[in-house]
Amino acid sequence: FCYAADSVVGVRVFDMLIHFKSFGIDLAVDVVRIIAGKELFPCLSSCNFVMSCLVKAGRFRESYQVFDVLRKGVRPDVYLFTTAVNALCKDGKVNDAMSVLSEMEEVGVLPNVVTYNNVIHGLCKIRDLDKAFIFKEKMIKKGLKPSLVTYSVLINGCLKMEKYDEAGSVLSEMTANGFDPNEVVYNTLINGYCKRGDMKKALNVRDDMSSKGLNPNSVTFNTLIKGFCSANQMDQAEKILEEMLSLGLTINAGSFTSVIHWLCKCSKMESALRFVNEMLLRDLRPNDSLLTTVVSGLCKHGKHSEAVNLWFKLLERRISPNIVTSNALIHGLCESGNVGEAIKILKEMIEKGFHLDRITYNTLISWHCKEARFEEGFRLSEEMVKQGISPDTLTYTSLIKGLCKKGKMDEAVMLLDKCKFQGLTPDAYTYGVLIEGFCKNDEIQKGKDVFNELVDKNMEVNSFIYNTLIRAYSTVGDMTESVRLFNDMKSKGIQPTSETFSSLIHGYSNNGCVEDAKILIDKMRDDGLSPNVVCYTALIKGYCKMGQMDKVEMSKFGINPNKITYTVMIDGYCKIGQTEVAAKILGEMERNGIIPDVVTYNALANGFTKEEKIEKALQLFNDMSQRGNLTRPVLVMEVFEGTCSNSSICFCDLESSSQTATNVLVFHVAFIKLKTAHNFEYCYFLK
Question: Record's Gene3D superfamilies (predicted)?
Fold first, then answer.
């Protein structure tokens, strides 16, 4: 069995090596080295066994070190040489591997296909394709035929170096030599074209694969999805994913994740949610980033119940959504006014041991204060402190906003002082909220005083603060101060926004300075801002106020009017006695899919009443009733005020309306008007 050893010792060594698996490869290597030191060597099969195990374990250096030890007493055969070549190539020592191959030939051991494949693979790994092809040709000259592995390695090497034409040539040669490429070869080609971004060729290879009777597998499809995502052809990626689902193939998390992110970006939330559920069915855990994106997207598009259901489904599957995802859900629920559901989520989080953070509390506090429920906001801030979470500037800003909404300005100022006392630095937004509070509570001068204090202290003053003051002064008609602030804003390098211009346009229009408002529209364009429907509506309102209805043709402005725009125009035409035109505008409004509200109907009803077109006013009331709009009592009274002769008609119509007939004030007015008109029969009934 052994060279340079008696047969008895050789057998014993061999037996030890046979059982080395029980003790581990390290013991086997030590045994080889010890007995080699005594010039005793195991047989070839045992040598090959040890070498192969070392290579499989990734211990390449030890493998060829053992080879150097063994070759001193064992004449290596083709298998031992090939294993050594493989170890050297895998360790990046390709030149040494080629030297061993030359040595093989010198000692009369002919390299086989596997030997050459190892060298070719090694050369491809170090990106020396030219030598790899030379070795392929050398191999052929030696009478060896390249194998499927040879061609696969060369194709992979070409693709990694983006030599796609060469890869195609190798594939053609491979087919010509009678080899049918397998899934690995095709997938390698597809992967290469995908990395290049040539998705057309990638699909062609996929189709060629199918024509050869090979079914594209999970690797094929996942590779294509990744390629389409990289090429930003997400529609195609989605189609491939759908195809995989229909075929029941294994889909990796990366494929799902890429497509779902894109679907969320494109607002295709139903498809995104469906794919998330498919992931869960396959026991694939969506990562935190993906879950946050999906939950936020669902909430943004009004699918709050779906977002809540997904959150609870994750808990059922023992996948705990992280605090960021949970905060996104709470924020979405609060934004939609569904605070009850948000509190339910919060309680569940506490029960499940979630560590609530400042964002969680700030979201809830912000919503309560936004809805002027500052008492609940303060209660939550106290609970926040009990949980060991210190309020930050945003917490105080939300609470200040809540107090401002309730008109409690003194308390708001005190809370700002407390914020400073706690060592926090209120930012421009905090001061902006306080200034806005003063302005909305008719204390513009106090708001201006806070502004002046900021300026004197060289503190940041942003567009929000300027816009707040400009809007306030424009509302009260003080355009001189509004313009002064506007110029001051620009002098400090703060760019006016659409809101800035909108406030000024409103101010000028309300003061009858419509031409000045028109100049501002042009200035907006010069500053690179597109006047929006709010700006044009303000301008139209100014023209309507002045009775200049000939200047309010909407097509001149090139805008899509909204409900307010239409209402302003209807009111304007009614005020100059052109109710027929106003009625046509109402029809246009409805044709454009904009539903009139009570204010719109009231504007037209007022116009009809003033022109004593009572039947048309009544028809309008019927339309309002059918649409579910509530008629204001004052307008019913105005109809009665329109004419006494038609009071009985009014009464009959009102009697049939469940919404208006129940109003005591309306009946009282009806009674008086009917009595004045001597309609005693109706008076008796009404009484």
Answer: Tetratricopeptide repeat domain
Token readout for 189 is 């080609």
Q: Which string of DSSP letters, residue by residue, matches 328-363?
A: HHHHHHHHTT-HHHHHHHHHHHHHTT----HHHHHH
Is residue 587 included in any domain, yes or no? Answer: yes
Q: CA-based angle 334:338:343, to the nearest 5?
A: 75
Residues of the domain holding 578: 561-687
599: confidence class by pLDDT, cuts 50, 70, 90: confident
17 found inside a domain: no
Return the closest-CA partner of residue 75 out of 48, 49, 55, 56.
Answer: 48
Neighbours of 596 (CB within 10 A): 22
SS3 61: helix
Q: Quick check: helix, strand or coil at residue 205?
A: helix
Structure tokens given for 240: 């491939």
| Half-sphere exposure of residue 189: CA atoms within 13 angstroms, side-chain side | 28
Residue 516 corresponds to which amino acid? Answer: D
Average pLDDT taken over every residue of the chain = 81
* Residue 490 predicted with pLDDT over 50: yes
392, amino acid identity: D
Dihedrals phi, psi of 667, to nearest 5 degrees: -65, -35
pTM over 0.70? The answer is no
**How many domains is the chain built from?**
1
pLDDT of residue 509: 86
- How is 634-685 classified by DSSP, letter by letter? HHHHHHHHH-STTHHHHHHHHHT-TTTTT-HHHHHHHHHHHHHTT-HHHHHH
> Residue 331's pLDDT band (boundaries 50, 70, 90)?
very high
Main-chain phi, psi angles of 623, to 5 degrees: -60, -40
Q: Is residue 598 part of a domain?
A: yes
Q: How many CB atoms lie within 10 A of CB 350?
A: 12
- Tokens describing residue 22: 């029980």
Query: Can you tell me which residue has the tokens 């087919």?
Result: 175
Of 154-163, 301-310, 430-439, give the lowest mean pLDDT range. Answer: 154-163
Q: Residue type for 53, please?
A: C
8 A C-beta contact, residue 76 and residue 103: no
The domain that contains 637 carries what CATH number? 1.25.40.10
**Measured distance CA(663)–CA(261) in Å, rounded:** 54
pLDDT at 559 over 70: no
On the 0-12 / 13-18 / 19+ scale of CB atoms within 10 A, 57 is exposed
Q: Residue 643: CA atoms inside 13 Å, Cβ hemisphere, count?
A: 15
Q: Give the model confidence (pLDDT) of 195-240 as tens digits.
A: 888 999 899 989 988 988 888 999 999 999 999 999 989 999 999 9
> What pLDDT sits at residue 137?
92
SS3 for 391-453, per residue? Answer: CCHHHHHHHHHHHHHCCCHHHHHHHHHHHHHCCCCCCHHHHHHHHHHHHHCCCHHHHHHHHHH
CA dihedral 326, 327, 330, 335 (to 10 degrees): -140
